[in-house]
Structure formats: structure tokens, C-alpha cells
């Protein structure tokens, strides 16, 4: 298969899966497979968290006065400062399309663009790091569906996949020794979603490890990557202007969900944790830690995987301190890296064919999730 066809195939699968998820909403189907879509429309897609919040950022750029006057219905008890939790780059994509389209349509186009860029970045990533080139397409397809939380998230206005695009391309550029480009892409990832700053920590560890005690070489290699924390500092300085507080992001309440000691997600009294059915989180931990272990095992033979193993380890460790029922969403930023770790076993035993069997429950799960994750909006007028 030619390179262009590889890109087209994965892009088409990514977009087709989004259209499948959108179809009952677009076609105004009332019920399907026991799921009730009555009175739902494509606005339900735009209404899912956090699309409307990014639209508010796109139109206000965090200005509290504009938010209060035009979007007061979305201002809860956390106040206008809550929007500081929604970093600006994905909002900038929505803002661009909002110049030509109404708000919800700008969100739909941003979703499609994010899926296209994500699919392309997966091919580039697996081309660089997959040892067997026959693995590229199967791994890329798996990475747009696993873990299951990815499918509903790709179909709504979320910033994970734009962030993942920058992360994957930054890692590839670093491996190609294009450090300035890698740093720029890393900075863009940081401005898209806050946990991307952990990639900077991975670069620091990898460069120090590679250069040993050679301080001059360490500083020379590390200097371009200072753009990543600098980008964060610039953003927080802007928060200082609009909110009067550079640390507004940390004072939103409910956006970090980090607790000490680790594994507090199994504590039943925390705000974003409810019920005692949490066995699925244990399965997620197992999937993550086995994937990280496989990456380290492979990095002993394939040295270019060491950075990926380091970043995956740092990120996986941070997840143990996340106390949120939706911890699977937090894990998305390393999901393709874990798929790479499992890659040889997936291909050897043809596990990727199991995906076809699981597509039906995956789609049903996605519809149910989207129907239950709706942001309350009584009046659409300010958002059109």
C-alpha cells in the first residue's frame, strides 16, 4: 500500500467512525438498539462537555465581563475563573471557524479537523517507531479506538486529539534530532492541554540520561525545550491580566483532581468519585502498567523508544494521584504510546481482529456516554 493510501485509509476510518456516532443525532432517530434519542439533535454533540466552554473562550478570550454578560448561563459556582481550565489553542481553532460559521458548526468542523490531524500524526508516529512496517496501519486503527473512551471523545468538541497530534509529532521530531521543531510542537501541546507539560519533564530526563554529566551538552540540547514551560508562563501571565491572578488555573476548583496519597480514586467521599463499582479503573491501571513495562522492555533493544518509555512512566505515575471517575479520559494522552508497546504482540497474535467484534458495543457505549454527558443549556441564542 502506498504511503498516501495509508494516510487516506486511517483518516477515512477516523472520520467514518465520527459520522457513525453523529448519525442518530443528525438523522433525528428516536430510538435505536434500545437507546432513546428522542428530542436529540446535532446540538447534543455541541452540548457535550467541554465544547461549549471552549466556544466561550473562543469568543471572550477569558474576559470575565464578556463571559458574564453573554454566557452567564454557563458560569456556575466556580465563577468566570473556571474557563482558565480550558487552555486556548483548541479554542483558537474554534474561533477561526467561528468567523465563517455559527458556534455549533464551528465546533463540528473543529472536531473533524482534530480527527484528521490525529489520524495523520498516528501514521507518522508508527512509521517512525514500529519495528515491522506491517504494523503501521493496524496499530494506527487500534489507536483511534482504544481505550474505549477515545471514540465518544473524538466525536465531541474535546482538545485531547489536537494535543496528542502535537505530542506525537514532537516526539518524532525529537527522534529526528529536529530539536527546535520538537520544542515548538511541545509548546503547542502545552497550550492545548495542561498535562502535556509532563513531556518537558521527559525531555529533561532523557537528555540528562543521554549526555551523562556533560553539563554544556545538556544545556545546549535542553535549551530549545525551555519553550514549553515558557509557553505556560506566558499563558499564566495573560491570566494574571484578565483574572488578576497568574495562578487562576490552580484556583478553579475541580479541574486538577490531584490528591495525596495516590489511589484516592477509590475513596468514596471525594467530589468526582461516586459509587463502589470501580473495578474498571483497576483494569485500566493494568492495561497502562503492562504497556509501560513493555515499552521499557523494548527500549533496552530499541534505544529510540527510551523517551517514549520515560514519558509514559511519568504520565502513568501521575494518574495514580488523579481522583476522578473519568480517569480513562486523563489517560488518553499516552494511549497511542501504550498501543506501540503492545504492538508486536497485537500483530503476532492478530489481536487487532478482535476490534471488529467489539465495534458494536463500542458504538453503543459511545452513544450512551454522549447522551449522559450533556451540559445544561436552556437558551442557545448566545451560542449561535
Tell me what the structure shows:
- 62% of the residues lie in helices and 1% in strands.
- It has 18 helices and two strands.
- The protein is mainly alpha-helical and 384 residues long.
Total domains, how many? 1
User: What structural category do the secondary elements indicate?
Assistant: mainly alpha
Mean pLDDT: 90
Number of strands: 2
Describe the main β-sheet briefly: 2 strands, antiparallel
Helix content: 55-70%
Share of residues in strands: under 5%
Strand order across the largest sheet? 1-2
Radius of gyration: 21 Å
Task: Report the order of strands and helices.
Answer: HEEHHHHHHHHHHHHHHHHH
Total helix count?
18
Shape: globular
Distance between the termini: 44 Å
Low-confidence stretches: none
What is the element layout, followed by pairings?
Blueprint: H1 3-26, E1 31-32, E2 35-36, H2 42-47, H3 51-60, H4 64-71, H5 88-98, H6 103-129, H7 136-143, H8 150-154, H9 160-175, H10 179-190, H11 197-211, H12 215-222, H13 227-243, H14 279-299, H15 306-319, H16 327-330, H17 335-348, H18 354-372
Antiparallel strand pairs: 1-2
Notable characteristics:
mainly alpha; 384 residues; two-stranded antiparallel ribbon; 1% strand; single chain
Amino acid at each position: 500500500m502506498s504511503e498516501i493510501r495509508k494516510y487516506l485509509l486511517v483518516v477515512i476510518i477516523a472520520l467514518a467512525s465520527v459520522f457513525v456516532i453523529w448519525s442518530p443525532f443528525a438523522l433525528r432517530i428516536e430510538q435505536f438498539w434500545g437507546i432513546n434519542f428522542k428530542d436529540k439533535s446535532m446540538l447534543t454533540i455541541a452540548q457535550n462537555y467541554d465544547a461549549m466552554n471552549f466556544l466561550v473562550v473562543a469568543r471572550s478570550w477569558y474576559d470575565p465581563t464578556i463571559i458574564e454578560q453573554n454566557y452567564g448561563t454557563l458560569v456556575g459556582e466556580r465563577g468566570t475563573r473556571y474557563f482558565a481550565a480550558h487552555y486556548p489553542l483548541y479554542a483558537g481553532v474554534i474561533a477561526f471557524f467561528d468567523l465563517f460559521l455559527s458556534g455549533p458548526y464551528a465546533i463540528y468542523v473543529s472536531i473533524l479537523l482534530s480527527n484528521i490531524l490525529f489520524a495523520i500524526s498516528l501514521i507518522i508516529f508508527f512509521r517512525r517507531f514500529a519495528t515491522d512496517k506491517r504494523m503501521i496501519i493496524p496499530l494506527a486503527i487500534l489507536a483511534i479506538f482504544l481505550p474505549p473512551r477515545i471514540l465518544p471523545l473524538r466525536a465531541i468538541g474535546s482538545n485531547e486529539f489536537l494535543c496528542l497530534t502535537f505530542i506525537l509529532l514532537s516526539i518524532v521530531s525529537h527522534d529526528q534530532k529536529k530539536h527546535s521543531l520538537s520544542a515548538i510542537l511541545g509548546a503547542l501541546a502545552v497550550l492545548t492541554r495542561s498535562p502535556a507539560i509532563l513531556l518537558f519533564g521527559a525531555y529533561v530526563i532523557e537528555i540528562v540520561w543521554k549526555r551523562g554529566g556533560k553539563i554544556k551538552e545538556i544545556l545546549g540540547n535542553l535549551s530549545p525545550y525551555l519553550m514549553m514551560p515558557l509557553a505556560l508562563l506566558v499563558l499564566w501571565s495573560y491570566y494574571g491580566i484578565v483574572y488578576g491572578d497568574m495562578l487562576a488555573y490552580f484556583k478553579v476548583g475541580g479541574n486538577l483532581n490531584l490528591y495525596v496519597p495516590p489511589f484516592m480514586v477509590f475513596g468514596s467521599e471525594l467530589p468526582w468519585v461516586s459509587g463502589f463499582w470501580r473495578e474498571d479503573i483497576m483494569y485500566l491501571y493494568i492495561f497502562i502498567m503492562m504497556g509501560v513495562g513493555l515499552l521499557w522492555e523494548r527500549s533496552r533493544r530499541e534505544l529510540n523508544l527510551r523517551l517514549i518509555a520515560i514519558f509514559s512512566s511519568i504520565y502513568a505515575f501521575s494518574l495514580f494521584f488523579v481522583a476522578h471517575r473519568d480517569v480513562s479520559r486523563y489517560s488518553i494522552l499516552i494511549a497511542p504510546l501504550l498501543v506501540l508497546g503492545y504492538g508486536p504482540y497485537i500483530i503476532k497474535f492478530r489481536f487487532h481482529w478482535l476490534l471488529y467484534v467489539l465495534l458494536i458495543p463500542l458504538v453503543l457505549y459511545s452513544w450512551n456516554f454522549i447522551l449522559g454527558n450533556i451540559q445544561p443549556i436552556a437558551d442557545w441564542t448566545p451560542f449561535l
